[in-house]
C-alpha cells in the first residue's frame, strides 16, 4: 500500500469519542461515514438533519437497511452457462430523519449566514451523536441548535432524534419541518466497482402513504425483488404551536410553527422506524410501525438514551480493549469496535457487509470477510452475536445447494462469493465465484465456534449439516493426479491478483482442514447421536462411504512447496511468473486493479493481499517458526496491500516471527485505516474486516492467542510503544481477562468456574478460587 497524502489524526485524540469542532465541506463526505449511526439493521449516515447545500460530490445522505435489497439482471456482453444471473444491492431508503429549521422567512443553512460555534461528537459509550452550534442568519437572527440522535440497539426498527432550538437575540416565528423523503437513489459505481451499484435512478416506487397529526409514513415497493417497505415517523413538540401538513408524491411533511421567545428552548422529538416484508407479512407492516412509534414516544428520548447507554455498557464490559501509551490507537480501537457492533446483523437473517450500514460500497454484499476476519471478534467478545452469524449461513444452505447444481456438482452445497439473500452476485467469476475457499472459511468459523463454546445443540441442529454438505464439494471439485496426490484445479485464492490457478495453497490447506473436520463430525455423531446423524444423512442423501473418502482426500492433499526457496508456493504456477516491477510503478497507479487490465496483473508475481500468509495464521500449528519467517519474507516483497484485509494478517505473523517493528507498523495501518482514511475511500463506507482485524492484531498478534485442537494458547508480548494492554475473551463458558505489562502478564477469571490454557507453552489451570495468575514473558 502506498503512503497516503491525507492529513492524519484530524480529530482530537480522545479514547471514547470522535469530535469535530469546525464544519468543512472538504471533509463532509468522509465525516458522513465516520459519524454514521447504526444498530445492525438501520444505518443512518452522519448527514445533518437540516440537509446539505454544499458542492456536488461532497455528500451522500444515505439511510440503509441491512438485508433489504433490490435485484437487477446482470447483463453480460458474452454470456456463458452458470454465470451469476442476478445482482442484489442494498438500497438507499427514504430519509426519515429530516428536520428543516426556519427563522421567520430564513432557512437555516450551515453554508449561509455565519457559524459562530460548532461541535459534533459521537460517543462510543452512549451511542449518541451530539451536535451543538450557534449560528447567525444573513439577516442577523442568532440561534443555538442542539441535536441528539440514536439508533436503538434494543429495537432494530427504531431511531430517535431530540432537536432543540433557542432564539438568542430575537423573539419571533420559528418553524420546524419534520419530513419523510422518498426521493432518494443509490450512488452509481462508475469505473470503480468497489463504490456502489451499477443501477441509476430510483429503485423504490411509492404505492401508498399515510399522514395524520404528527405522523407520516410512506409505503413503497421494490420493482424486482418485490419487497414492501414502510418508512414512518412520529414527531412530538410540547407547548403551543400551529401544525400544518403537506403531502407530495414522495415527500411528507409536518410543519410546526412556534412563537419563540428569546432565550427559551423549543424542543422537538422525532421517532422513526422502518419495517419491510423481508421480516413480516405486508399486512402487518403499518400496524407494527405505528405500535413501535407509539411505544417509543411513550418512553421518550431520554429513556431510549438510557437504554442505549446500558446496552453499550454491557458490550464494553466484555469487549473493551484498553491500550496505555498510544492515544491515537486507543481511539482507533474503540471506534472500530463500536462500528462493528453498529454494522452486524443480530437476527439470524442478516450478516455484516464489507461497509456495514455506513455506505453503499460493494453494494451491501456479504463476503468471506465475515467468517475469517469479523467472526472471531464477536465469538470471543459477544458469542451470542457470533451464533447469529452462523445461523445466517444455515438460512442460506438451500440456495448454496442450488448454486452447487448450477456449477455442475451433483451433491453438496457451494456458498456464494458475494450475496445478500443467498444467490451468487459476483459477475466477475475469476475473482469471485472461483474463490471456492468460501466453503472452507464457513466450516472454519463453525470449528472455532465449537471449540470456544462446545454448543452441541447448534452442531446438531445446524452446523453439522453445513460442514458436511460443503465438504462434499471438494470431492466433486478435485481429483487425484498420476502420483496419487489430491489436486484442486482452476480456483482463486484470497489473493485476487492471481486468478484461476491450480492448487492454490490456501484453498488446498483449508480444504484439507475442512474435510478432516467434516469426517470428525460424522464420526462423532454416528457414535454419540446416531439418530441425529441418520436424520442429517437422509436430508442430504449422504452415502455411508463419503466420510472415509473425505479422510483419504485430506491425507493426500497436494500442498505446493518449493524446495529450492524453502517456501510454500502460493500455487503451482505463481513462482514461475515474472515479478511485478514495483520500482517502475508510480504510486498513483495503486490500487493496481484500477489501473491495469486483470490479465496484466494475473501474469505477474504480485499479491493484492495475504494468501499463504493467511494460511500461516489460520492453520498455524502446521508450520514451524522458520517456515513462517521464510514465507513472510518472500510474500511481503510481492504484496501491495491494495486490499484492506491484508495489513492486519501481516502484522500478526510479523509479531509471531519476531519482526516487532514491522508488526506495529502494519497494525497501525489497520487500526486507524478509516479514521485517517488511509485508503482514500472511507467516504463510501467503513472497512469492517479491517476494523475486526484490529482486534485480531491485539489478540492474535501481540497476545499470541491461538486455539489448537480445542486448547487455548497465549504467547503475549508488549509493543515498546505501549505501557500495558488489557482485553477479555469468552471461552468454554468462562470470561478471561488478560493484562500485559512490561515484566508480567496477569490473567483474571471473571466468569466461569475453571479454565485451562497455555502461557508460552506452560499449562495453567485457573479457578474462581485463584482468580489471578501472573507470569513473566
Describe this structure in words.
With 777 residues, the chain is an alpha+beta fold. The protein is built from 18 helices and 31 strands. The strands form seven sheets. Strands 1-8-9-10-11-18-15-14-13 form a nine-stranded antiparallel β-sheet. It has a five-stranded antiparallel β-sheet with strand order 7-6-12-17-16, with no helix packed on it. Strands 19-26-27-28-31 form a five-stranded antiparallel β-sheet. A hairpin with a 3-residue loop joins strand 2 and strand 3 (42-44). The longest helix is centred in the middle third of the chain and has 24 residues, at 505-528. The radius of gyration is 27 Å and the shape is globular. Mean pLDDT is 95; it is low at 1-7.
Entry keywords:
31 strands; alpha+beta; 18 helices; five-stranded antiparallel β-sheet; 777 residues; disordered N terminus; nine-stranded antiparallel β-sheet
In short:
With 777 residues, the protein is α+β, with helices and mostly antiparallel strands. The protein is built from 18 helices and 31 strands.
Amino acid at each position: 500500500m502506498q503512503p497516503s497524502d491525507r492529513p492524519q489524526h484530524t480529530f482530537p485524540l480522545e479514547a471514547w469519542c470522535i469530535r469535530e469542532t469546525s464544519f468543512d465541506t472538504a471533509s463532509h463526505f468522509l465525516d458522513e461515514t465516520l459519524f454514521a449511526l447504526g444498530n445492525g439493521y438501520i444505518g443512518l449516515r452522519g448527514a445533518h438533519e437540516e440537509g446539505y447545500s454544499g458542492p456536488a460530490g461532497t455528500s451522500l445522505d444515505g439511510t440503509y437497511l441491512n438485508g433489504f435489497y433490490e435485484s437487477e439482471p446482470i447483463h453480460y456482453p458474452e454470456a456463458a452457462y452458470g454465470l451469476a444471473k442476478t445482482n442484489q444491492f442494498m438500497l438507499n431508503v427514504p430519509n426519515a430523519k429530516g428536520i428543516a429549521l426556519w427563522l421567520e422567512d430564513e432557512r437555516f443553512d450551515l453554508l449561509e449566514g455565519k457559524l459562530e460555534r460548532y461541535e459534533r461528537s459521537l460517543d462510543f459509550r452512549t451511542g449518541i451523536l451530539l451536535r451543538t452550534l450557534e449560528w447567525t442568519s444573513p439577516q442577523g437572527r442568532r440561534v443555538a441548535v442542539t441535536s441528539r440522535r440514536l439508533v436503538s440497539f434494543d429495537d432494530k426498527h427504531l431511531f430517535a432524534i431530540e432537536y432543540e432550538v433557542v432564539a438568542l437575540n430575537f423573539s419571533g416565528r420559528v418553524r420546524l419541518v419534520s419530513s419523510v423523503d422518498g426521493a432518494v437513489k443509490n450512488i452509481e459505481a462508475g469505473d470503480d466497482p468497489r463504490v456502489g451499484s451499477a443501477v441509476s435512478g430510483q429503485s423504490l416506487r411509492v404505492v401508498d402513504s399515510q399522514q395524520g397529526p404528527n405522523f407520516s409514513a410512506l409505503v413503497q415497493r421494490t420493482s424486482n425483488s418485490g419487497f414492501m417497505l414502510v418508512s414512518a415517523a412520529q414527531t412530538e413538540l410540547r407547548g403551543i404551536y400551529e401544525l400544518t401538513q403537506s403531502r407530495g408524491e414522495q415527500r411528507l411533511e409536518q410543519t410546526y410553527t412556534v412563537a419563540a421567545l428569546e432565550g427559551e428552548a423549543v424542543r422537538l422529538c422525532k421517532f422513526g422506524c422502518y419495517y419491510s416484508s423481508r421480516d413480516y407479512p405486508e399486512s402487518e407492516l403499518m400496524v407494527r410501525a405505528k405500535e413501535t412509534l407509539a411505544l417509543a414516544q411513550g418512553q421518550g428520548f431520554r429513556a431510549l438514551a438510557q437504554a442505549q447507554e446500558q446496552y453499550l455498557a454491557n458490550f464494553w464490559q466484555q469487549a473493551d480493549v484498553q491500550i496505555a501509551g498510544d492515544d491515537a490507537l486507543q481511539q482507533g480501537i474503540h471506534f472500530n469496535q463500536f462500528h462493528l457492533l453498529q454494522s452486524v446483523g443480530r437476527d439470524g437473517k442478516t450478516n455484516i457487509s464489507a461497509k456495514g450500514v455506513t455506505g453503499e460500497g460493494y453494494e451491501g454484499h456479504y463476503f468471506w470477510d465475515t467468517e475469517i476476519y469479523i467472526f472471531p471478534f464477536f465469538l470471543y467478545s459477544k458469542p451470542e452475536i457470533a451464533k447469529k452469524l452462523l445461523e445466517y449461513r444455515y438460512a442460506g444452505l438451500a440456495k448454496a445447494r442450488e448454486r452447487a447444481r448450477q456449477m455442475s456438482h451433483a451433491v453438496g452445497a457451494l456458498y456464494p462469493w458475494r450475496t445478500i439473500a443467498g444467490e451468487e452476485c459476483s459477475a466477475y467469476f475469476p475473482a469471485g465465484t472461483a474463490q471456492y475457499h468460501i466453503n472452507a472459511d464457513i466450516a472454519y468459523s463453525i470449528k472455532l465456534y465449537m471449540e470456544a463454546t462446545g454448543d452441541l445443540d447448534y452442531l446438531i441442529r445446524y452446523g453439522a449439516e453445513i460442514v458436511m454438505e460443503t465438504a462434499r464439494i471438494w470431492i466433486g471439485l478435485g481429483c487425484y493426479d498420476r502420483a496419487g496426490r489430491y489436486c484442486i484445479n482452476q480456483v482463486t485464492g484470497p489473493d485476487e491478483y492471481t486468478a484461476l490457478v491450480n492448487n492454490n495453497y490456501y484453498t488446498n490447506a483449508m480444504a484439507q482442514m475442512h474435510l478432516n473436520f467434516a469426517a470428525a463430525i460424522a464420526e462423532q455423531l454416528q457414535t454419540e447421536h446416531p439418530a441425529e446423524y441418520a436424520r442429517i444423512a437422509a436430508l442430504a442423501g449422504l452415502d455411508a462411504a463419503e466420510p472415509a473418502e473425505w479422510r483419504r482426500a485430506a491425507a493426500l492433499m497436494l500442498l505446493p512447496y518449493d524446495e529450492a526457496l524453502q517456501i510454500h508456493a502460493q500455487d503451482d504456477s505463481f513462482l514461475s511468473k515474472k515479478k511485478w516491477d514495483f520500482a517502475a510503478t508510480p504510486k498513483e497507479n495503486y490500487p493496481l486493479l484500477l489501473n491495469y487490465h486483470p490479465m496484466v496483473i494475473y501474469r505477474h508475481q504480485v499479491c493484492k493481499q495475504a494468501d499463504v500468509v493467511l494460511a500461516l495464521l489460520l492453520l498455524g500449528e502446521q508450520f514451524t517458526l522458520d517456515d513462517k519467517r521464510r514465507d513472510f519474507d518472500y510474500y511481503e516483497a510481492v504484496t501491495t496491500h491494495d486490499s484492506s484485509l491484508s495489513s492486519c494478517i501481516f502484522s500478526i505473523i510479523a509479531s509471531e516471527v519476531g519482526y516487532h517493528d514491522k508488526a506495529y507498523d502494519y497494525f497501525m495501518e489497520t487500526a486507524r485505516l478509516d479514521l485517517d482514511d488511509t485508503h482514500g475511500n472511507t467516504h463510501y463506507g467503513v472497512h469492517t474486516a479491517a476494523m475486526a482485524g484490529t482486534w485480531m492484531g491485539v489478540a492474535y498478534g501481540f497476545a499470541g492467542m491461538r486455539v489448537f485442537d480445542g486448547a487455548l494458547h497465549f504467547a503475549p508480548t508488549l509493543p515498546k510503544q505501549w505501557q500495558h494492554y488489557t482485553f477479555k475473551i469468552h471461552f468454554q463458558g468462562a470470561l478471561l481477562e488478560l493484562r500485559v505489562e512490561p515484566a508480567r502478564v496477569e490473567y483474571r477469571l471473571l466468569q466461569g468456574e475453571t479454565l485451562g490454557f497455555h502461557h508460552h507453552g506452560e499449562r495453567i489451570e485457573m479457578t474462581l478460587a485463584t482468580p489471578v495468575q501472573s507470569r513473566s514473558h
